[in-house]
Amino acid sequence: MSSSTAADSLRNHIEAIEKMEEEIRDMRSDVSERYKWAKAEGYDVKCMKQIVAIRRMRPDDRHEMENIVDTYKAALGID
To answer: Where is the GapR-like DNA-binding domain (predicted)?
Structure first.
């Protein structure tokens, strides 16, 4: 690969990455707006974010985490 071809290839990769990063920023802004709408409708955004994180987890990991949380709560006398 000639140096000008390599430079063009590198430039293309960098520009594509920059475009993707811009799209990610736009999507984060969209997510933020969605949370604002939900809050305006009376939903608890903190709880919604927690639910989103839980739904991302694999079922086995989620059950393990829930069991550990229950064990810690019992040890501390929380409900």
So the answer is: 6-77
Label residue 35 exposed, middle or buried (CB < 10 Å: 0-12, 13-18, 19+): middle
List, for residues 11-37, the tens digit of each pLDDT value: 999 999 999 999 999 999 999 999 999
The pTM score is: 0.72
Count of CA atoms in the C-beta half-sphere (13 A) of 18? 6
Write down the domain spans for the chain. 1-43, 44-79
Q: What is the DSSP letter of 57?
A: S
Cβ count within 10 A of residue 15 = 10
- State whether residue 2 is helix, strand or coil: coil
